[in-house]
Hints:
single chain, alpha/beta, four-stranded mixed beta sheet, three-stranded antiparallel beta sheet, 9 strands, 43% helix, elongated
Amino acid sequence: MTTTNDIFNFASTHNVFTRKELISNLKSEKKTGLPGTFSEQLSRLLKSGQLILIQRGVYKLSDKARKDFSVLCSEGMRQINKEIKSQFPYIDYCLWSGSDLISYMHHLPNLRFLFIDVERVATESVFHYLNGNSSKRVFLMPTLTEFERYIINNDAIIIRPLISESPLKLVEGISTPTIEKILVDIAGDVEFYFLQGSEINHVYTTIFERHNINKNKLLRYANRRGRKEEVEQLLRVNNL
């Protein structure tokens, strides 16, 4: 039986779609029910304003239906957060995982590394502590060569300097990056060298389709990182 959630989930991953494309997808997932039920649920999403009818049989997701982004907090992340808070109670930092990007990518690499962005004066101290107390390999500001040889597709912890005034948010009591910070980071950081050409365009487009983005916050942080032109170009190319 088709559910309203199935329709919404399809809509959240497609900027503009047709009724035919939606039905085809639901059939491939074996989620289609009675035609009347499907039409009622589609109508309900239109009436609630979550979907918009562009023209006959063509729909798009409403801006107000987009969700705020939050990093997924794993048990490993919670444990590391607990240790950092205990050992370095006065430093600013944030945690997030490369795996947070997978659902937005066209090609799906195995991104198992964890980022710990720490205020610059504490990077070496945090590195040495975790290097001696973690079962995972720990890297301090790795080069592209180090990333390609030792990190990609492996469990690892990457310590990086936290840019001042980075946009952060608390998730389950853990300091994490906002989606605006992530969008700027992936536009030029060594660890995202594999996001090139059509792939980064796909990631940007998909994130903008699914989530609320504060463009002022995005460009302000991009300016702090010296990447405002690059980010603005990505926005223009993808009509975002």
